[in-house]
Amino acid sequence: MSNTANLDVVPQAQGFAAAVRGLDLRAPLAAGIERALLDAWTRYPVLYFPEQVLTPALLEQVSGYFGPFGHDPYVQPKAGFEHVIEVRRDAHETAPIFGGSWHSDWSFQATPPSATLLYGEVVPPRGGDTVFADACRAFEALSPTMQQLLLPLNAVHSAAPAYGPKGLFSRDDASRSMQIIVSPEADKTELHPLVRRHPLSGRCALYINHVYTIGIEGMRGNESQALLDFLFKHLVRHEFIYRHHWQPRTLLLWDNRCVIHYADGGYEGHSRLMFRTTVAGERPQAARAV
Ligand code: SIN
Q: Best substitution site from 102, 104, 118 to test ligand 1's pocket, by max atoms within 8 Å of Cβ?
């Protein structure tokens, strides 16, 4: 069994997400199909693959088409699968939702992951959507004057608000089903260009997010907060949003270099279980000129 047919890529209305049909991801991809898939992903940073039957081992295999594994800190991996984490929430859990506010995965790392793959193993009958914002279109929609103001800036990223000793997950919550690791390590900071250039598409994206971006280099706290507040609001304007409503056995893939996302709630009384891998990325490159 192998995949040699043409890919069926169906763009969604918002223009940055697409459904991919006509592939059985359990089977090896012929070289031409792998190339076509990477091309589709460069055009549509959020791709979803309905009706796939993947185990954690197969998810690791599919992840490999997009590059080597990333490093996933602060979450215990699934037993027997070093590179898979379970994004899990039990029916009666009251702990904060993992990934429940706008973020780009692990943007506090020196080389944050390029991609994340999320497979819907147990999908609730309602709620539990994953919501995305297109950070390229958000940048392109700013005035040339605002773009020029942002281009030389670096933003400060940190895992502290989530995984630090005073972060969201530091509260001892007996109902939590995920094994999250809180550590003083999380208080470290990393600088990244506020506007990054995508290495494949060449497009510029606002590279900030509501959870991990805690300031702007060289600005006072109140100055950076005012600018970030404006940009956070702008980034998630409705015209930049794609809301992914899950069906069971769907694989979702996104590009952390040019979209931000969050996990929505609304499924109280039902369980949700996803298997997740990340793909190693590169140091974000500044887009100093447009
Ligand atoms: C995540 O932020 O990786 C989790 C997204 C989700 O559970 O929908």
A: 118
Domain-wise residue ranges, the chain: 8-279
CA–centroid distance, residue 19 to ligand 1 (Å): 18
Give the confidence band of 248 by pLDDT, cuts at 50, 70, 90. Answer: very high
| Contact present, 244 and 184 (Cβ < 8 Å) | no
Reported as a single tens digit per residue, the pLDDT across 138-154 is 999 999 999 999 999 99
The one-letter amino acid at 74: Y
Ligand 1 binding pocket mutation candidate from 103, 107, 116 (most atoms within 8 A of CB)? 116
Residue 290: predicted pLDDT: 66
Strands 17-21 and 46-49: parallel
Q: Cα of 263 to ligand 1 centre, how many Å?
A: 5
Q: What are the two backbone dihedrals, phi and then psi, of residue 128, each rounded to the nearest 5 degrees?
A: 75, 20
So what's the architecture of 8-279 in CATH?
4-Layer Sandwich (3.60)
